[in-house]
Amino acid sequence: xxxxxxxxxxxxxxxxxxxxxxxxxxxxxxxxxxxxxxxxxxxxxxxxxxxxxxxxxxxxxxxxxxxxxxxxxxxxxxxxxxxxxxxxxxxxxxxxxxxxxxxxxxxxxxxxxxxxxxxxxxxxxxxxxxxxxxxxxxxxxxxxxxxxxxxxxxxxxxxxxxxxxxxxxxxxxxxxxxxxxxxxxxxxxxxxxxxxxxxxxxxxxxxxxxxxxxxxxxxxxxxxxxxxxxxxxxxxxxxxxxxxxxxxxx
Length: 250
Prior knowledge:
- This protein is α/β, with parallel strands linked by helices.
- It has helices at residues 19-30, 67-78, 110-114, 233-247; strands at residues 6-14, 36-41, 55-61, 82-86, 94-95, 101-102, 116-120, 127-131, 145-147, 155-158, 163-169, 187-196, 199-204.
- The chain has a single domain, classed as Rossmann fold (3-Layer(aba) Sandwich).
- The strands form three sheets. Strands 2-1-3-4-13-12-11-8-9 form a nine-stranded mixed beta sheet, with helices on both faces.
């Protein structure tokens, strides 16, 4: 039986990450179904593809839309659209005069819409992710799992209500960040759902990826290759489920 075309839009762009790897991988997953057609951009400058899209996928860092684009994004989700936001989508990064990183306050409403804003992360090290909503289809059948390979545990400012599906415990101070100290007994969302009108946003903080040439203009060569959670089975299973959720009817 002929299936109707489903349209999705991918925004992949920004700094300090292997955006090319993420873009190619996400397009491969979206293209696994022949009736799915995906448009691609590196920013929020042109959101006309959302007029016909069912799913928006974002993998960005330091890419923030203007207020009018935020209004368009909100209208898309409120009207029933689905948005899968990955890793650094909620990140605005800057450095102070001492070279410490900080997250400037967002005045566009973007982070309020998403439900979180990256603030800092502890040194990259293995950490354990816990399942908090075992009956949710995105994580059903999964147990707690370890993240290795150089991914980041996000310390975030949270806005509004969301259903946390995965979280992780803080693992130490965020060295090199202005907001250095976080509660050592605190837990931080790794995967959550946020309903907005008739639609929904799913935010997945995993997915860090950085190669030797991804720190320009700060560094011309980065010594360490950080492959992140892309190398572990639970991440790939959840990511595939998230994309299937985003493309499904209703």
